[in-house]
Amino acid sequence: MDKILLIIKREYLTRVRNKTFLLTTFLLPIVILLFIFGTAFLAASTPEKLKKIAVINDPGMFKSNLKNDAGHLNFDFTTTLDSVGFKNSGYDALLDLNNDSISKNFTILSKEELDIKTKEMIEARLDMAFENNLLEKKGIHKEILDSIINQSTGSFTINNRRVSDRGSSEQVNASLNYGIGFSSGFLIYITMIIFGAMVMRGVMEEKTNRIAEVIISSVKPFQLMMGKIIGIASVGLTQFLLWIILIVILLPVLSSFLPHALMQNAIEASQNIHSGPGNSALMKALELKQMADSVNWLRIICYFLFYFLGGYFFYASLFAAVGSVSNEDSQGAQSLMLPIMMPIIFSFIILSSNLTTPNSKIMVWASIIPFTSPVVMMGRIASGTPWEQLVASMFFLIAGFVFTTWIAGKIYRIGILMYGKRFSWKEMLKWAFHKS
Fold first, then answer.
1. Each residue of 136-183: pLDDT tens digit?
2. 319: which of 55, 62, 186, 200 fits an S-S bond (Cβ 3.0–4.6 Å)?
3. With contact defined as beta carbons under 8 Å apart, do 383 and 177 qualify?
4. All domains of the chain, ordered by start, with CATH?
């Protein structure tokens, strides 16, 4: 045990003192937070420009029904402009309604390319105007139509609460759970690949430099493998904990630059009936912050650490086994990595394509099978997972880790001292199941 601790200490200190580790640990969270808050600050402080649109060749159904969008769109019906003259008349675009209204295909000329949002807003206003005209033809007067529209302004909201077996309920938000699940699963997916490859490269370097021969003269190959795996895992945990501490410290500091702009926009939005999408986005951001405060982050972090460590140990031992049989030939190592990488990639595909249905059969089984559970289960945690499925997932992940470590240990013991030949998985499996 003392020898394993020495190897862990060596692996840990070697990587923690590395300049790359220090830069990524301290600069990455700062860059991410500056990017997020910088984007929010620019969105809060940059007003959206009013688009003035000249409308020509009205067939008679749009002038009385095509509504302006205060602060965003202003339609001006005219008969004196053409496709060239509108540029010098202060308009941003010219909407030509000369096409057949049945086909619903009109042409709009603009000085600059219209952004997607503006184009969709114009199309929505045209659809509404066309519908209003059809209703008026059916005898629904404009005054009645306007009163119905005014009364139906706004939309219904549904507060979803999840009821437990004991009868208690808690507020849930599918969008927030989706974000937490995807980001957690994606982070584990990336770290398994990065730290697993780090283990493999470390073993390959020691083997090619013949350092392993010196170390193995004092320790057993299995002790060397375990010390390397645990040492690199400790580096990853240190990095995650430092990221959490830095984010907790920096979040209030950076937030102090935003409240004035955010609150000012929120006040203006409440005073302005026709508040635009910019203000609406800020209100939603404040609402999202309130929902995030209600999340049990301690539970999420604990599960994240378990599945991070479980997934890492499950795959790191296999990466170490591949590194032990690899020589200077990098192509040979890459071909041996493919069977290990495929389940990791497949688990992320399952997560990203089925996260909107966290309780579907494929998500349930993928969250229990140890090859995919580290990534997929984190996608389900935030949405609520039955305890029996969670226990089964943890049990099989631990059992899978013990099994892969046993397999990898037998491969590592032979492969670490084998030189000058490219090995295949067929030969490695013979070593794994050969009775010593």
1. 777 777 677 677 767 666 666 666 666 666 666 666 666 777 788 888
2. 200
3. yes
4. 2-41+175-433 (no CATH), 51-149 (3.40.190.10)
